[in-house]
Design brief:
The protein contains 9 helices and 26 strands. The chain is α+β, with helices and mostly antiparallel strands. The radius of gyration is 22 Å and the shape is globular. The chain starts with 15 loop residues before the first strand and ends with a helix. 42% of the residues are buried.
Length: 420
Amino acid sequence: SSSSSSSSSSSSFSSTTFRPNWRSAGVSGMHVFGGAVFESPPRSGRHYVELSLFIEDDLQVHLRQYKEQMDAMRTHRPLAVAHTGGEGQLLDASCSWPTLSGRRISVRALVFGFGRSSLRARCLIPSTAKSSPAKDSGQVGLEFTLIVEDVHMPVHLTGRDGAERFLTLCSHPWWNLDRFGKQYPEFLSTWLTYHKEVIGVEEFWLYDIDGSLGPELAKVTANFTVRYFPNFPDTIPILRNLTSQGWPFSSEMLAYDHCLFHNTGSSRWIASVHGVDGYIVAARKGSTSLRNTLSEIAGPGDIPVCSVSVRRCSFGGPKEMDKSRHLVEAFPFRMENCSEDGPFHLDDPIHSGDGSAIYSLAHRAVCTDQSRLVKLPVHKWRLNHYVDAWSNRCRNCRIRDDLLMSEIHTIARKTMSKVD
């Protein structure tokens, strides 16, 4: 925000993102994952706060039929799908704002969502709303009360500080990594080093559902900036119950959502790479860097880029080396056309951090109406997905492709020299 005065009005806000204390934000089954302030239309002076919100079943929130949700995603338009107390009745939600005069103003909230992930609650910030400086940084914060049905949740959002990163990488919640580590002892160090040194990732946000990533991170000796969220579903009781009943993917989109909302405004680009069996790769040697590619895509233009979609390229087949310490060495064969899936079906997206990505679904973004999706050609950039790392899944991986091998060997030599 552009002001730190406790008496400033909403007109002093710039489009930015705020970080809530999300681990203690849950009230009666309601959890706030993140918040963003944006101006709409641009240069209008009208600012809104938008919260990423998860509501558990004890508030009796239900979602409409699958077809409606899919139709909304195809048109990239928010659909108010949360309702309670009867078909078609939307959630009664509002934001209660403290004002400069000491009174409070209640503003009705728009609640919308896509599929069984989190919801969005969007409220206009009144021109007389009072902002407050954060105690630790002096940056502007927002304090208000979110009211959903009869539940009141105090929300305190703190303005971000520090320089903006260029690229942050988000994982989905992993599990059983101890098993993976026994088979490929250097999998995590290699994966982190490659994406930091070759791709340019500055910060990693990594999640698991069982704590198995922690011991593997402890083995990594190189210096990486990692935010680790162990046992991610345990924060929300319903997710913990679903995970314990054998539904490990139940928290996947919520983890992506958590990472997107916490890094919007702090990172220019936010990449969703589903697992340690996936590597972002320039499909031709000597290609321009990912930084340059993204900068060119987001160059001057009338319509901002919401998200860049990176196509998956499946690797697998018979193992080249049974005792390989590196995943890339073990599976050098890919599918002839990389994938049998169409665009967006199993892509790994890189979202813009400017707030134009409303949702981070598993393999694509849901964008604002004023932004666009870009598909990267698979012959320029791709995500090598070593699908047979966990089980035999690629029956048509017959084309040898050693493009990534030299990079992995270089990283391995550096690792060995540091150990020596």
